[in-house]
Automatic annotation (TrEMBL):
<keyword id="KW-0472">Membrane</keyword>
<keyword id="KW-0067">ATP-binding</keyword>
<keyword id="KW-0547">Nucleotide-binding</keyword>
<dbReference type="InterPro" id="IPR003439">
    <property type="entry name" value="ABC_transporter-like_ATP-bd"/>
</dbReference>
<dbReference type="GO" id="GO:0016887">
    <property type="term" value="F:ATP hydrolysis activity"/>
</dbReference>
<comment type="similarity">
    <text>Belongs to the ABC transporter superfamily. Lipoprotein translocase (TC 3.A.1.125) family.</text>
</comment>
<dbReference type="InterPro" id="IPR003593">
    <property type="entry name" value="AAA+_ATPase"/>
</dbReference>
<comment type="function">
    <text>Part of the ABC transporter complex LolCDE involved in the translocation of mature outer membrane-directed lipoproteins, from the inner membrane to the periplasmic chaperone, LolA. Responsible for the formation of the LolA-lipoprotein complex in an ATP-dependent manner.</text>
</comment>
<dbReference type="InterPro" id="IPR017871">
    <property type="entry name" value="ABC_transporter-like_CS"/>
</dbReference>
<keyword id="KW-1003">Cell membrane</keyword>
<keyword id="KW-0449">Lipoprotein</keyword>
<dbReference type="Pfam" id="PF00005">
    <property type="entry name" value="ABC_tran"/>
</dbReference>
<protein>
    <recommendedName>
        <fullName>Lipoprotein-releasing system ATP-binding protein LolD</fullName>
        <ecNumber>7.6.2.-</ecNumber>
    </recommendedName>
</protein>
<dbReference type="GO" id="GO:0005524">
    <property type="term" value="F:ATP binding"/>
</dbReference>
<keyword id="KW-0997">Cell inner membrane</keyword>
<keyword id="KW-1278">Translocase</keyword>
<keyword id="KW-0813">Transport</keyword>
């Protein structure tokens, strides 16, 4: 029998990030674009969820809002028990730093810094981490993503897949509760993209982080424990 709300899990105990009746309308004064039309969503500790949908269906908008980078027009976002939409930018920023890691289609690494420096940066920005501790943790993470032999390479000296692995290590270095990845393999060839998805899955199991991956690519979405299909700002035909 079809579950009318497949994006909601029966067991809510370990939900790390959720949203209720999320809507988003962009309004530039001349045009109103209703991008999200009342979505419910939840992800559990250690769960790997893929959201798949064609370009323009609202995936990036949803991820931005779930990550507290933008506010919904209406609806609620709960991150580790905090109602993000009710907080000011500073408080949202603090929760983001504490609980979330982000990966994008383009790596956004700093070109003048090597892999260890790029990955240790988020920890260095935290007052409670020394340079030595941050670099030690960065080295561990880079080793986990298969880059032990590239620690002192700068982004320009790495392949596309390697750069994305560095970006992934950087997202994981603060031990976030949830990693939000927007088309993390969109810039890579298929073989490399599949390798990165496998890596995400392995790391999720090892580090017990929830991963939310957004993609327009059906095949890549199949790496998820749960796949949600998005169309025109709504869920469609999703299965658990
Ligand atoms: P996807 O990531 O699935 O390709 P997006 O979330 O980027 O989709 O965009 C969904 C729709 O929202 C698109 O039609 C896009 O033009 C519109 N949109 C996104 N951001 C804005 C914005 N800042 N202002 C107006 N419209 C926007
Ligand atoms: Mg997008």
């Amino acid at each position: 029998m079809n579950n009318p709300q497949p994006h909601l899990q029966k067991n809510h105990t370990n939900v790390v990030l959720s949203a209720q009746r999320l809507s988003k309308t962009f309004d530039d004064g001349r045009n109103q674009v209703e991008v999200l039309k009342g979505l419910d969503f939840s992800i559990h500790e250690g769960e790997f969820v893929s959201i798949v949908g064609t370009s323009g269906s609202g995936k990036s908008t949803l991820l931005h809002i779930l990550g507290g980078l933008d506010l919904p027009t209406s609806g609620e976002i709960i991150l580790k028990g905090h109602a993000m939409n009710r907080l000011n930018e500073t408080k949202r920023g603090n929760l983001r730093n504490q609980y979330l890691g982000f990966v994008y289609q383009f790596h956004h690494l700093l070109p003048e810094f090597d892999a260890i420096e790029n990955v240790s940066m988020p920890l260095m920005l935290r007052e409670n981490s020394t340079v030595e501790q941050a670099q030690q943790r960065a080295t561990e993470l880079l080793t986990k993503v298969g880059l032990k032999h590239r620690l002192t390479h700068k982004p320009g000296e790495l392949s596309g897949g390697e750069r994305q692995r560095v970006a992934l290590a950087r997202a994981l270095v603060t031990s976030p509760a949830v990693v939000l990845a927007d088309e993390p393999t969109g810039n890579l060839d298929r073989r490399t993209a599949l390798d990165i998805m496998d890596l995400l899955k392995d790391l999720r199991s090892e580090l017990n982080m929830a991963m939310l991956i957004v993609t327009h690519d059906d095949q890549l979405a199949h790496s998820g424990d749960r796949i949600l299909h998005m169309q025109d700002g709504l869920w469609v035909n999703s299965s658990n």
